[in-house]
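Sample 3 of the quickstart, ligand adenosine-5'-triphosphate:
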Amino acid sequence: MKEEIYFRTAGLTVGYQGVPLIRDICIQMKKGEILTLIGPNGAGKTTILKSVIRQMKPLCGIVYLDGKKTDEMQRNELARKLSVVLTDRVRTERMTCRDVVSTGRYPYTGKFGVLSEKDWSVVDKSMEVVGIAKWKEQDFQKISDGQKQRVMLARALCQEPDLLILDEPTSYLDIRYKLEFLSILQKMAKETGLCVLMSLHELDLAARISDKIACVYEDRIDRFGTPEEIFTEGYIQRLYQMTTGLYDELTGNLELSAIKGEPEIFVIAGMGTGTMYFRYLQRQRIPFAAGILWENDLDYTAASALSSVVVSVPPFRKMEEKHVEEAKKWIQRCRKVYCADKLKETAREVAGLKDIIEFAKREGKLE
Ligand SMILES: Nc1ncnc2c1ncn2[C@@H]1O[C@H](COP(=O)(O)OP(=O)(O)OP(=O)(O)O)[C@@H](O)[C@H]1O
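Result:
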């Protein structure tokens, strides 16, 4: 069976006062998918989201939901299909959290806005799904920003939308709630076929949760595809025009810039025993050398980001005499050598590493 595209934009151009900001946006997703917009501050992610929900009029192009043009839909029809969690403040004076959530039912109530028993049960269920049932009677104004984000998610869910749109939904959440929040979205998407369109600044999370990613850059969607297609080596550095530090697309790790200069310490690293120490030396502003590392070792990414010199061996190749000699040369030039105890044990089995540890001992430099 052919899977239907549920959400699609065709030649969508968005901007302000008739001036295009992002042109010719062509993105799409099927039911049950999560599509995330990433890109630098001010790139235009919020502008795209606001244009999709018709809070702003697109300069040209079409947004399709379930094959229908959204600009031909009645407001109420659109509100039943699509719900929104934007960062803009909603007016919530003297409202309990349950009241705020209940405003999500407005597309289903009559013109007097009276909620039926069924509406209230959807409200309560949404609060349970998001894990905020205990705050029902709490004054919305008196909860934290992170708690408000979760209330607004429950409000959007109780609208029972086909497409949920969220602008930086995890920005105020602590690490536990970031994961919980995104897990709820993922569960809803996979179990109920909900489509999710959101912007995220947390690239590591975007890479893990998204089925599709659109990269907003300058006046265009620079890349649109699966995380595997987007997070290729060096791309994030270019997208964000990073001039300091390093982003590792595979792990989502960020490293600061290396302290340049003649290395003072040689770190015998491997199996992840070196990374924390590299970061410590970087904080102390001490230039260092690292080795002998296989280029697929856990420590290699941080070593190549933070050290002045890395003595390395290509993946799955033998450590050769030339690598040992190079490491010894740097050990002679450094005033100290560090090797974690855990690595000293393992290194007994690895000829090259054993050689340089013994050499450092003989030189009186091993810590
Ligand atoms: N009302 C407005 N009128 C004119 N320009 C605007 C307006 N609102 C935003 N902009 C501009 O549009 C550009 C895109 O802003 P937008 O908020 O969409 O970016 P964003 O990618 O969501 O950024 P961030 O990651 O910082 O939240 C910015 O240069 C911003 O200054």
